[in-house]
Amino acid sequence: MQKPFEGKKVLVTGGTGSLGQALVGHILSGIEGTPKSVTVLSRDEAKQHDMRLEYAGRSIATDEVIFESSRQYLCFIIGDVRDYDSVLRAAADADIIFAAAALKQVPSCEYFPWEACRTNIEGAENLVRAIAQHKLPVETVVGISTDKACKPVNVMGMTKAIQERIYIEGNLRAPQTRFVAARYGNVLASRGSVLPLFVNQIAAGGPVTVTTQDMTRFLLPLDAAVDTVIAALKFASPGETYIPQCSSARMIDLASTLIGDRDIEIALTGIRPGEKVHESLLSAEEAARTVAGTDGYYAMRSLLPELAELVVNPVLVGDYSSDKVLMTAEELQKFLAKWNIAIEKF
Predict the structure, then answer these.
(1) Which one-letter DSSP state was computed for residue 122?
(2) Active-site amino acid positions
(3) How far apart are the C-alpha atoms of 162 and 288, rounded to whole Å?
(4) pLDDT tens across 1-18, in order?
């Protein structure tokens, strides 16, 4: 298969976030081809400045390719996906767009639901509208979703569920562009994830705060999240959502594993506003239209008949939920070791 970024102009909205920065680094690495340009759209000038400085300081042997690529191809636009003109300006010259801009902190979205709607829903609509109304020659848009969009009970999940539908429907409004999505669970060590919180609490001597004994979450390293997004770009058909086959863990087991033999207390605090005890990556209804994607992924087909493909022998029966694919304590230790995630790293 041709390398997807070769000679392409790539736009990453929310490119200063954890996933956005990881995506930018992956694109600049040249693994998937040399892009013509990589543009970051975000509203945070401080993070953009920090990102410039980070790349300017990467001229060491292992990062030489990324450093040189950033000097030649990387540029920044200050703007907001809530603003149609900002989106139109950024998208007008793009071949591939990764839509990573989001409000994703669950309690914040509960207390400021309209703000979540403006970013997660209106932002997606602005992108689809810009491409459709101006017939922009965008080849592919990859929307970045979350397990909280499956059977949502919180504002963040509800807005992301609608965002998924906006991108799916975008295939009908702008048929010259392929709109697909990537949906995954908690990204370890990303901004706002529980891992840095646990590590900081351990470094301070505790206590480590866990919501409940039973709470489980899907766990995905940042590199694996990037791989999921790239797999969706490469292989997803219009309207499909790519979902990784991944394991989960009890949050109390994660805390205990990180604490190790240290004499540090675990304190149960109760569920925060909008949280579930268990998350799902696929509902039973969605599983009925889900097939095996490329190795290690599920491909959820569109529910719109204009985009639907025949589903024979769906890969799952029932929900794909985080209480059903739990790692044992030993498996969790091996998982963290595999990805070099340990208290000493932070």
Answers:
(1) I
(2) 148
(3) 20
(4) 679 999 999 999 999 999
